[in-house]
Amino acid sequence: MGFFLWGFLTDFFTYETTKSVVVKSWSVGIINRIVQLLIITYFVGWVFIHEKAYQSSDTNIESSVMTKVKGFGYLQNQNQNENYQNRVMDVADYVSPPQGSGVFCIITKLIVTENQFQGRCTEVSTHSTQCFLPLVSYTPGVITGACLKNSNESHGMCEMEGWCPAENDAIEIEPMDVNNFTIFIKNSIRFPLFNVTRGNFPPTMTAEQIKKCIYHPEDDPLCPIFRVGDVLHHTGQNITELLSRGGEIGINIQWECNLDLNIENCIPKYSFTRLDAPFAKNAVSKGYNFRFAKYFKTENGTEFRTLHKAFAIRFDVMVTGKAGKFNTIPTMINLVAAFTSIGLGAVLCDIILLNFLKGAEQYKAKKFEETVPLLLSVTYFHFPVIRLCPPTLHYQDTNRSAKELLNGADSDL
Amino acid sequence: MGFFLWGFLTDFFTYETTKSVVVKSWSVGIINRIVQLLIITYFVGWVFIHEKAYQSSDTNIESSVMTKVKGFGYLQNQNQNENYQNRVMDVADYVSPPQGSGVFCIITKLIVTENQFQGRCTEVSTHSTQCFLPLVSYTPGVITGACLKNSNESHGMCEMEGWCPAENDAIEIEPMDVNNFTIFIKNSIRFPLFNVTRGNFPPTMTAEQIKKCIYHPEDDPLCPIFRVGDVLHHTGQNITELLSRGGEIGINIQWECNLDLNIENCIPKYSFTRLDAPFAKNAVSKGYNFRFAKYFKTENGTEFRTLHKAFAIRFDVMVTGKAGKFNTIPTMINLVAAFTSIGLGAVLCDIILLNFLKGAEQYKAKKFEETVPLLLSVTYFHFPVIRLCPPTLHYQDTNRSAKELLNGADSDL
Amino acid sequence: MGFFLWGFLTDFFTYETTKSVVVKSWSVGIINRIVQLLIITYFVGWVFIHEKAYQSSDTNIESSVMTKVKGFGYLQNQNQNENYQNRVMDVADYVSPPQGSGVFCIITKLIVTENQFQGRCTEVSTHSTQCFLPLVSYTPGVITGACLKNSNESHGMCEMEGWCPAENDAIEIEPMDVNNFTIFIKNSIRFPLFNVTRGNFPPTMTAEQIKKCIYHPEDDPLCPIFRVGDVLHHTGQNITELLSRGGEIGINIQWECNLDLNIENCIPKYSFTRLDAPFAKNAVSKGYNFRFAKYFKTENGTEFRTLHKAFAIRFDVMVTGKAGKFNTIPTMINLVAAFTSIGLGAVLCDIILLNFLKGAEQYKAKKFEETVPLLLSVTYFHFPVIRLCPPTLHYQDTNRSAKELLNGADSDL
């Protein structure tokens, strides 16, 4: 029993290593080393240094955005609405929704229809002899089917039911100048995987500095206050058209953080795009507008409303980020891939060595040892060995195999 | 020195390859090739073709959603509110919030409590002799503790402080029919990793086409206009109940883009789910409703309000996406894994070869060369070699080892 | 032709395995096994069990949040506004926006400026002899440049154009007590990769249980109803200051799901942070406030408004998640990396074996077989072999190489 255990232990604590053939050939040797060098260069330069494959990364960013707009504008409005003529608009008037979230609109143009009551009246836009229900085009109310016209006219206007008088949105008005408005953006992010929290301006910035600065891509890339005109300019779009028809602007805050370096290098990068750019070729639904109403009551309690068709620039503050930090798993996997890849260079060299080089047959003979199944080889092997060579010869042969083969073959047969 | 360098270079530019044993056995050979074939098939078919392991992928999608609802509805309301009786509701009335963001509500039912002033009055719902403060159940105001009842009654109603009269939300009203409303969705996305921007309808679609089309999963899968009734129908829910109690509907836009192919194949896929489905089994908080108020002023400046309990269908347009593009790092890692895995087939063959095959001992002898430490082997090895075999014999032995062993052993001892 | 095919098949269905040298040395054997043990332990313990490298993971969570606030508060307001004096605030008054989305504000303090009309009046805050346009500091309207002062005074007040009278936000008022308000959060998530949908409270929870419970990290970690005071307390911030100046609170719902286990273990974990914490060191823009207006009309149709500067606590319900499920690709890659890494242990052992051990030269001789290009070796190799040893000797040599070498060399020359 003890002997058995000893035998097992002796067998267990052996070390097995592959037997190698060393080829002293300059041509193959140089090819071998060059291939290895290329592979090492690729892994060190591209995989490890450029692509940072030794890091695990987190793109699942947690972000909170707070915005605050400042500025005053004059609303040059249509003449018939005295309430809106040359009105000074402040933040409570033109920012919607007012809560300062990451998505907000700055209203640049308002088509106002005051004193709408529920009832029946003529539609404004479509003139027709047949007042059927239009399927797609916008009508400001439910078409009743009746056609209101004077007896001597062939064409009239459709009657509609709903809020009357109907909105006439065909009028042309000048948009409000919002270029000098400023947007203050407070963005705090967290990478949950690494539990790292950052803000979009450094804690060393004083309140005085922040109040005075204006964002500039080169001169002041960390200032959190953006001039609306600058933002629109950075998108490369026609500002006049944007103000007049509305539009969607993306303010992208990109966090690319290498957490192996100083955390102070983990700073945001801003970029600005027009979000409806993919639809530039379609003529449909250009710009951005929405309708909202303010509700009032007459003395006797009847509700009426003021309808607003608001053309606005919508800002979407979108935060994307990626943090990387050293992690053993990707490092191990990539290191193993690197080491194994170096070995793959040998495949190429073997092909050259065994096929195209002078002396290929010699190398083949060196590299490959052939063995044939026992049943075929037994006559071919067994007897000549015994007859021609004394067993002591085996001590001289450093290969244990021949001797064992004999013994093995003996005991098997 | 020059000689030393030369020696170093000679050593450096050598090529080392493993010595292999070639087993000419049909059984093992066939097993070997079948295992290799299976592994190659798995890697080519599953890992590379199906799972696209040669691509790096980006799921961190940047998305902007703009929505616009169209349609008119009649609000069949309770009799006592003349303001809301058979009112025609338009977008400004029933969509909340109005800005056309990715999350919006279509109000289907309104319980309206008009002319609420601050003060004290009786609560509507709970009739009780003891007016204590209820902890959880909804009361429309702060319970003062007083119980208002006629002297001849045993039960009365609790007095409350707040907006009076109190809301009575127990009344039954018919929901508005919103099935024929349409939702226009404009979604532009970007994969920041690959800097690819896409819109949810192709740029070749004209304004005319878009205005006329209605989304259909098979017939018109790219039309960005959705009939509300269709959307509700696709969720497989009871539409009558949804309209009556409200609900949360998810409109999922899924982008699965293989950027190695034509970018035109990168198109969205829509799916519709009821988001409160995981809570279907709990009887709590079914449906979806919220309260909002419109504020008015009397002539003498006192503020009063109209409270609305709105039952609504909330639509959450949720955009998910994944883009894949060829990248050398995952390709390298998976290729190395593939090649190494093919080698793993040899482990299986070795087990069969060395244990279960006829002639296993012979193979073992071929594969393994044994060596024992020098101190033990020296007597066993050294002398017989010298005595029995002339050194010239070593030239015949293609193994350089025995000769070197002698020399090495000599110089060591 | 048939013979050629047969030969090809015989060659194809052979099995090639590396020739190994077995070193029967206790020292190297033990080192070898220890290194292998360490590598296996690392892979099994860290890579597979701890880091779950056998799973593919999805962090791209799809989430929908519905919130509902309950509670009443008293607004202790400035004396001059009778409308807001000791007003009972309900949900429709203090929650903004009212739709119950994942981001909402609870207003704690209101600075109300009633009856603002468009016009010109004096600014409240800045007293100056020179009324130039201030760039950054907040003014409630457009400064006209005129300075309104009595003739006998040296200092006056600037005239502004806009909504008059101007807001005076310097007054001190007590915030509303919101500690006892409750927030009900309904969160349903989906992992699109695995198509798994979950809700934030178990379906076994009855409506009664949910109505009565209050979230507690240890005692009731799955209750979806949160006391506002508890949430503020969990952030570790000064609650009095939070109520008075406003603030942004993050309610993080973290889903960490191992989908290989029972799906019932896939439950949310709540945590609470103050989101503006990264800006704590900057003195700028502490707290959270926004302005909104209610619009009214006089009898003769002139619009006027009530401006509110609302100090609020904004709650951002942020949902992050990660689901993992067994997947063959990462499993294969990591297994291959593991197996290959075990092989890397051999590199260490080889270095020890070939350099530091007694008998290193002997091992070297065993492991490496040298071969030199044919042109050099031909004299050195060919003739002695033929002269000294009879060809029959080759049968005794288990290496096929020497014999083949001769043949090969013969035919080549």
From TrEMBL, chains A, B, C:
<comment type="function">
    <text>Extracellular ATP-activated non-selective cation channel. Plays particularly important role in sensory neurons where its activation is critical for gustatory, nociceptive responses, visceral reflexes and sensory hypersensitization.</text>
</comment>
<dbReference type="GO" id="GO:0005886">
    <property type="term" value="C:plasma membrane"/>
</dbReference>
<feature type="disulfide bond">
    <location>
        <begin position="213"/>
        <end position="223"/>
    </location>
</feature>
<dbReference type="InterPro" id="IPR001429">
    <property type="entry name" value="P2X_purnocptor"/>
</dbReference>
<feature type="disulfide bond">
    <location>
        <begin position="257"/>
        <end position="266"/>
    </location>
</feature>
<keyword id="KW-0472">Membrane</keyword>
<keyword id="KW-1133">Transmembrane helix</keyword>
<dbReference type="GO" id="GO:0001614">
    <property type="term" value="F:purinergic nucleotide receptor activity"/>
</dbReference>
<protein>
    <recommendedName>
        <fullName>P2X purinoceptor</fullName>
    </recommendedName>
</protein>
<dbReference type="GO" id="GO:0033198">
    <property type="term" value="P:response to ATP"/>
</dbReference>
<dbReference type="InterPro" id="IPR059116">
    <property type="entry name" value="P2X_receptor"/>
</dbReference>
<keyword id="KW-0813">Transport</keyword>
<dbReference type="GO" id="GO:0004931">
    <property type="term" value="F:extracellularly ATP-gated monoatomic cation channel activity"/>
</dbReference>
<feature type="binding site">
    <location>
        <position position="309"/>
    </location>
    <ligand>
        <name>ATP</name>
    </ligand>
</feature>
<keyword id="KW-1015">Disulfide bond</keyword>
<keyword id="KW-0067">ATP-binding</keyword>
<keyword id="KW-0406">Ion transport</keyword>
<comment type="function">
    <text>Receptor for ATP that acts as a ligand-gated ion channel.</text>
</comment>
<feature type="binding site">
    <location>
        <begin position="68"/>
        <end position="70"/>
    </location>
    <ligand>
        <name>ATP</name>
    </ligand>
</feature>
<dbReference type="InterPro" id="IPR053792">
    <property type="entry name" value="P2X_RECEPTOR_CS"/>
</dbReference>
<keyword id="KW-1003">Cell membrane</keyword>
<dbReference type="InterPro" id="IPR003046">
    <property type="entry name" value="P2X3_purnocptor"/>
</dbReference>
<keyword id="KW-0547">Nucleotide-binding</keyword>
<keyword id="KW-0675">Receptor</keyword>
<keyword id="KW-0812">Transmembrane</keyword>
<feature type="disulfide bond">
    <location>
        <begin position="121"/>
        <end position="164"/>
    </location>
</feature>
<dbReference type="GO" id="GO:0098794">
    <property type="term" value="C:postsynapse"/>
</dbReference>
<feature type="disulfide bond">
    <location>
        <begin position="131"/>
        <end position="158"/>
    </location>
</feature>
<dbReference type="Pfam" id="PF00864">
    <property type="entry name" value="P2X_receptor"/>
</dbReference>
<keyword id="KW-1071">Ligand-gated ion channel</keyword>
<feature type="glycosylation site" description="N-linked (GlcNAc...) asparagine">
    <location>
        <position position="180"/>
    </location>
</feature>
<dbReference type="InterPro" id="IPR027309">
    <property type="entry name" value="P2X_extracellular_dom_sf"/>
</dbReference>
<comment type="similarity">
    <text>Belongs to the P2X receptor family.</text>
</comment>
<keyword id="KW-0325">Glycoprotein</keyword>
<comment type="subunit">
    <text>Homotrimer. Forms heterotrimer with P2RX2. Heterotrimeric P2RX2/3 has a ligand dose-response profile that is distinct from either homotrimeric P2RX2 or P2RX3.</text>
</comment>
<feature type="binding site">
    <location>
        <begin position="289"/>
        <end position="291"/>
    </location>
    <ligand>
        <name>ATP</name>
    </ligand>
</feature>
<keyword id="KW-0407">Ion channel</keyword>
<dbReference type="GO" id="GO:0070588">
    <property type="term" value="P:calcium ion transmembrane transport"/>
</dbReference>
<dbReference type="GO" id="GO:0005524">
    <property type="term" value="F:ATP binding"/>
</dbReference>
<feature type="binding site">
    <location>
        <position position="182"/>
    </location>
    <ligand>
        <name>ATP</name>
    </ligand>
</feature>
<feature type="transmembrane region" description="Helical">
    <location>
        <begin position="335"/>
        <end position="357"/>
    </location>
</feature>
